[in-house]
Amino acid sequence: MHTLCARGTMKPEINAAVGFLSRFLRVKGHVNDRQVQTFSQSLQDILAEQYKHHWFPEKPCKGSGYRCIRINHKMDPLVWQAGQRIGLTIQQLYLLLPSELTLWVDPFEVSYRIGEDGSICVLYESQPGPAGMTTASSTSGNSMVVSPMVDSHISCKEELMVLGRTSPSKAYNMMTVSS
Questions:
Q1: CA 127/CA 64 separation, integer angstroms
Q2: 47 vs 72, 151, 161, CA distance in Å?
Q3: CA–CA separation, 148 vs 157, rounded Å?
Q4: By the 8 A CB rule, do 63 and 56 touch?
Q5: Neighbours of 128 (CB within 10 A)
Q6: Complete DSSP assignment for the chain
Q7: Per-residue pLDDT tens for 9-35?
Q8: CB 22 within 8 A of CB 36
Q9: What is the value of pTM for the model shown?
Q10: 71 touches 124 (CB < 8 A)
Q11: 148 touches 132 (CB < 8 A)
Q12: 74: how many CB neighbours lie within 10 A of its CB?
């Protein structure tokens, strides 16, 4: 797998995105642990190859559309390619993954939206740390140190929220279930 490119590492971001998608396969069943591992490794390799010339830590939003993983009545071709490697049909992938999903894999941040008007949630983001290094966190609670960070920036997610919404947001009520 290509974990480094000339402009910096993309491994933590790719791992966050792949882990997120792989959990859907694991949770919804019909895919065994070995298949999930193969899917994950395949998708990591595919994304690293796809992104290697489109990764710009100095301008994180540059190439964001190219790196976006999208399922919207059409399966993302990179996800479909990884699914084929474990014998899933496109119909099975549609059953296992959300029907409306946007996943942004950007330097220093991975975020997603389920549904066209859903809230944007952050899976992974990195923060400046000591000695020019970047400390990162993910929704799984893991902390790690990754490549040096460049000047502060507005995230692509923030830019979309400010500039890109074409329809009004919908109010969603949260329901918690406890046993």
A1: 19
A2: 19, 25, 25
A3: 21
A4: yes
A5: 14
A6: ---EETTEE-HHHHHHHHHHHHHHHHHH-SS-HHHHHHHHHHHHHHHHHHHTTS--TTSTTTTHHHH-EEEESS--HHHHHHHHTTT--HHHHHHHS-SEEEEEEETTEEEEEESTTPPEEEEEEEEE-GGG-EEEEETT--EEEESPP-S----HHHHIIIII--SPPPP--------
A7: 899 999 999 999 999 999 987 899 999
A8: yes
A9: 0.71
A10: no
A11: yes
A12: 10
Length of the chain: 179
Judged by average pLDDT, the poorest of 52-56, 101-105, 127-131 is 127-131
Taking only the tens place, the pLDDT of each residue in 107-129 is: 999 999 999 999 999 999 986 44
